[in-house]
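Usage

Read records sequentially. Each one opens with the input sequence:
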Amino acid sequence: MGFMEDAKKTAEAVGEKISDDWDKTTDRLSDKADEMKADAEVRKAEAKADKAEAQRDSVHKRNEFREELRD
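and closes with the structure output:
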């Protein structure tokens, strides 16, 4: 009987270890997915900012050119 009880406890311990490892792995994957989403948002915002800066520079150049034509 002692051998069967030890085997059962060992199997339960292995099952718990596998379950814990699975939970940790899914948490890590979830964290990585959140990181990737945040990085994508930053890249999107940077691209939008670059576009806005280019548009601003274009307006400044256009206004400078118009001012020169007025003189």
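Summary fields computed downstream for this record:
- Helices lie at 2-70.
- The longest helix spans residues 2-70.
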